[in-house]
Each structure stands twice: as C-alpha cells, then as structure tokens.
Amino acid sequence: MSKVKYYYDSETLSYKKIERKKGRKLKIFALSILGMFLSGFLLLLVYLNLPSVQTPKELSLQRELHNMQLQFELLNKKMEQAQTVLSEVEARDNNLYRVYFETNPIPEEQRKAGFGGINRYKNLEGFDNSKLITNTTRNLDILTKQIVVQSKSLDEIAKLAEDKEKLLSAIPAIQPVKNADLSRIASGYGYRTDPFTKAKKFHYGMDFTAPRGTPIYATGDGTVKRADSRATGYGRHVVIDHGYGYESLYAHMYKYNVKKGQKVQRGDVVGFVGSTGRSQAPHCHYEVFKDGERINPINFYYGSLTSEEFSEMLKTAQQENQSLD
Q1: How far is Cα 262 from Cα 258, in angstroms, rounded to an integer?
Q2: Pairing between strand 215-217 and 269-273?
Q3: What is the pLDDT of residue 270?
Q4: How far apart are CA 149 and CA 112, in angstroms?
Q5: pTM of the model
Q6: CB neighbours of 75 closer than 8 A, spacing ≥ 6?
Q7: How far apart are alpha carbons 215 and 272 in whole angstroms?
Q8: Suppose 210 and one of 12, 71, 195, 214 were both cysteines; which one would form an S-S bond, judging by CB atoms 3.0 to 4.6 Å apart?
C-alpha cells in the first residue's frame, strides 16, 4: 500500500493531501531509460575517440613492435649491401677465376635455383607486418643459397689452383744442364747422323755436352721411376715420372745422385754427366715423354732461358749435325 503524502498550506494553516498526476511514473521511467542510453552513447564516443588512452603494457608492446619494424628494415638494407658485394664476387668468379682455370662458369639459374613453385612462406601470412616479414625471410633465404653456391665454387677454384700449381711444378721446364756448365748443345730433336753407323736416324732427345761430373738437374717435380743401366744404349740413366702424363729421361750418366722411388723437385741434382752406354763423348742425353710418346724437349725450357737464349738454342738444335749417341 502506497504512502499518502501531505503538504502544509500556509494560507489556510492546514495540511492538504498531495494528489499524484496521471502518467508521472511513466515519464520518470522514460527519462531514466533515455538517460542511461545517452550515458552509454557518450561513453562509447569517448572510448572510440580516445585511442591514446592505453595501458602501460600496451604502450610497451607498441614500442617493441615499432622497434622490430625498424630492425627488419635495417636488416633488409644490410642484405641489399651484402647482395651487391656477392654479385661482384660472382662476376669475378665467372669472368676471371673460371676463365683462368679453364672451367665452365656457374649459370645464373643454378645460383638462384630452388625458390619457385610452392609458397614456402604461407605460415608468415595473416599478420599486421606479414609483407615485411615475408620479404625479409625470402631475401635472407636467397642470399644464404647464393653464399652456399659461391662458397662451393671458391672451394673448387682453390682446388683447381692447387692442381694448376702442382701441374706447373711438375712439367719439365728447365734445361737439365745449366748454360754456365755447357760446352755446347751438340744435337737436337729430329733426324741426325748416327755417330757409329753414319746413317740418318731419328734422334728422340737433345744432347747437352759438358765435362764429366757436371751436375744434371731434375727439370720438374716428380718421382724417380728408374735409376739403372738396364736399358739398351742409355748407359746409367734416370727416368722421372712427373705425373699428368709427363716423364723425363737423363742418360749416359757418370753416376747417380738419386734412387728409384725417391721424390725430387725441380732443380735437384739427379746425377752427373758421363759417357756410359752408347755414347761417343761426355754429355747428357735428355728426352721428354707425354702419355708415353716422345716429344721435342725444346718446347719445355721456358723456366730457365731468356728469349735470346731460346732463339739461339732453337737455331742450334735445328742443325742436322751428328748426334753423340
């Protein structure tokens, strides 16, 4: 039961009953609902228009995200610089190193192979910075692959350089007898008069005349294959296996300075000039073999002669004179 309210009337000096108007409660209720709606709408506007109002944790995460974006951008710039340097190395590799060592250049398709087809970066999609992260990851993968290919290429070049150095050290490249010790070059490669039969006969080496006991030098690095006098006509002689199909022979020695199986280097003394075997006078008969075939030794003196000395030797060796063996 609702309470009855009264008010004091000062004119009649009495209390009078307060009569409630119809619809008043309904207005109050409607105003209350409207007030709550307006309050909620205002709070929503405040929330939407004040994005800077963030918690300390949100501010910290935002700073970390911004820092990561900067780091990714710096990383991309560094990778671009590395890519430029690597491109220069690749160009030198193809156009200089591989040309010098007579090997094929690495095709561009091989250097950058393995990055087409399936989307290998699908797991990086769907984030705010997916494009930045994906591009960075892709560039890093490409750079890593190119570095691996180039590293293997340089390993191959290093091996080729080592083999080239060994080859150049092995090829017979000097005279077996020094110019200062020579009496003369008695005979060259080609048809010559046999000193015993006086008939024309092919002379497969070069004869270097020198006094008995003059040192004879290995013309290239190798292993002594023979050091004996069991081959007909050569007397005491030494054969050196240089590898790569090359051998050299030094005949008519007075005595040996090496033995079979011994390793020698270019310039080592392998024996001394003599006149053993089928020989008319003290000299060193010298031959060069390539893949089992005798070849002209005069083409292998680039390591010890000047151009003038080589021209003089060539002139003398071409004379069809008498050989000494």
Answers
A1: 7
A2: antiparallel
A3: 96
A4: 9
A5: 0.59
A6: 136, 140
A7: 5
A8: 214
- Distance from C-alpha of 230 to C-alpha of 318, rounded to nearest angstrom: 30
Q: What's the maximum distance between 2 C-alpha atoms anywhere in the chain?
A: 178
Tokens of 227: 């050091």
- Are 193 and 323 in contact by the 8 Å Cβ rule? The answer is yes
Ordered DSSP codes for 22-57 = TTHHHHHHHHHHHHHHHHHHHHHHHHHH-TT---HH
Exposed, middle or buried: residue 219 (CB in 10 Å: 0-12, 13-18, 19+)?
Answer: buried
Structure tokens at 294: 């005798």
- Structure token pair of residue 85: 């340097």
- For every residue of 91-150, DSSP letters joined together read HHIIIIIHHHTT-PPPPHHHHT-S-SSS-TTGGG-SSTTHHHHHHHHHHHHHHHHHHHHH
Task: Determine the Cα–Cα distance for residues 142 and 106; give it in Å rounded to an integer.
Answer: 16
* Interatomic CA distance for residues 198 and 195, integer angstroms: 6
Distance CA 285, CA 209 (A): 9
Tens of pLDDT, residue by residue over 71-89, are: 878 888 888 888 888 888 8
Q: Which two three-digit tokens encode residue 311?
A: 């021209």
Instruction: Report the amino acid identity of residue 17.
Output: K
